[in-house]
Amino acid sequence: MRRKLIAGNWKMNGSRAALAELDAIAEAAAADPSVDVAICPPFTLIEAAAERAPGLTIGAQDCHSKTSGAHTGNLSVPMLQEAGARLVITGHSERRADQHETDEEVRSKASAALAAGLTAIVCVGESEAQREAGEHIGVVKRQLAGSLPAERGTGEIVVAYEPIWAIGTGKTATPADVAEMHAAIRAEVGEGVRILYGGSVKADNAAELFATANVDGALVGGASLTAAQFVPIIEAARS
Ligand code: PGA
């Protein structure tokens, strides 16, 4: 039985004051040891978040593949680890779009995280046009083939399926769509890898998603910013 993982991605949101939300989130996580809970705040809040909520897994939203060097503005895995990160999101569709990240870069970032013993959440997902053209399964399989490291290191690899058209839009894939895609991903990654769903996950659709075959949790954007919205998602994951 794979444990559920509920990971919050704060994206470019939040301030020191927002860390107060972590208290109730940590309390909900502690109340159910059967669910793993992570929060990925902006880089500047990682250290303070890790100090405030030692019971939560604090993660980063990106990393560089090299450990150090002339890469202005980037942060390496050892830097993130020193700040308290134990997980890294790699290849989020917003970075694939805004920073033009390729599968190859995503793979090298995930490799760096895994080699250091961190959890790497590798994100994949099709656009609306690709789904309408019936190409969604092929697109995601190609992303997996290009983005998943062959070497797993000592860290844990997690896949997040996030259809781009469902992110921040209030649209969610139907349970049938999710089941189809997660089965396709499962066939590629095997039984041991957790597969998260992401894209407008909220308190009112979480239970149905978590009851869907091969859904091992969620990557949550907007609804992870407040405990009021995030805690019910953690509760829906309780087995
Ligand atoms: P959303 O974002 O929950 O706000 O749709 C999900 C994500 O991008 O990880």
Write a brief caption for the model:
It contains ten helices and eight strands. The protein is α/β, with parallel strands linked by helices and 239 residues long. The longest helix has 15 residues, at 175-189.
Walk me through the structure.
With 239 residues, this protein is an alpha/beta fold. It has helices at residues 21-31, 46-52, 77-83, 93-98, 103-115, 128-132, 136-147, 175-189, 203-210, 227-236, and strands at 4-9, 35-40, 57-60, 87-90, 119-124, 157-161, 194-198, 217-220. An eight-stranded parallel barrel has the order 1-2-3-4-5-6-7-8, surrounded by seven helices. It is globular. The mean pLDDT is 97. Residues 9, 162, 167-168, 198-201, 219-223 line the site of 2-phosphoglycolic acid.
Poorly predicted sequence stretches spanning 5 or more consecutive residues:
none
The helix-and-strand class reads alpha/beta
Shape: globular
Helix/strand order: EHEHEHEHHEHHEHEHEH
Strand content: 15-25%
What is the average of the pLDDT values?
97
Distance between the termini: 10 Å
What is the count of helical runs? 10
| Overall radius of gyration | 16 Å
Helix coverage percent of residues?
25-40%
Strand order of the largest sheet: 1-2-3-4-5-6-7-8
Bound molecules: 2-phosphoglycolic acid
Reported for the largest beta sheet, the result is:
8 strands, parallel, barrel
Number of strands: 8
Keywords:
239 residues, alpha/beta, eight-stranded parallel barrel, 39% helix, 17% strand, binds 2-phosphoglycolic acid
Would you spell out the secondary-structure blueprint of this structure?
Blueprint (H helix, E strand, L loop, with lengths): L3 E6 L11 H11 L3 E6 L5 H7 L4 E4 L16 H7 L3 E4 L2 H6 L4 H13 L3 E6 L3 H5 L3 H12 L9 E5 L13 H15 L4 E5 L4 H8 L6 E4 L6 H10 L3
Parallel strand pairs: 1-2, 1-8, 2-3, 3-4, 4-5, 5-6, 6-7, 7-8
Bound molecules: 2-phosphoglycolic acid (PGA).
